[in-house]
Design brief:
Elements (H helix, E strand, L loop, with lengths): L2 H7 L1 E4 L4 E4 L2 E4 L4 E5 L3 E5 L13 H10 L9 E4 L10
Antiparallel strand pairs: 1-4, 2-3, 4-5, 5-6
């Protein structure tokens, strides 16, 4: 996707309870908001060594301010994470 296409489809989503793969299993997010783009996933900076999306300290308001200021000019140094779907088995 182009930068313009990403900027037109980027969403701010609540990631509380979402799970992401990490070494040894998965990590579950307890609170926060992150950027999400359909077809790509959750935004993460490539230099960040965690296995979770970018969740700023300022929360949803900080993400809204980023978009209000025009968003990112490039997504070259970013990765995209997919949510881990775990289905419950049994009763």
């Amino acid at each position: 996707m182009t930068t313009a296409e990403i900027k037109n489809t980027i969403q701010i989503v609540n990631v509380k309870g979402k799970k992401f793969t990490c070494p040894g299993g998965y990590t579950e997010i307890t609170k926060g908001f992150a950027f999400f783009v359909p077809r790509l996933g959750y935004l993460k900076f490539e230099y960040d060594e965690t296995f979770i999306p970018y969740i700023p300290v300022g929360g949803k308001k900080a993400l809204q301010e980023i978009l209000k200021a025009g968003g990112f000019t490039s997504f070259d140094e970013m990765d995209w994470l997919q949510e881990l779907k775990i289905e419950k088995v049994g009763n």
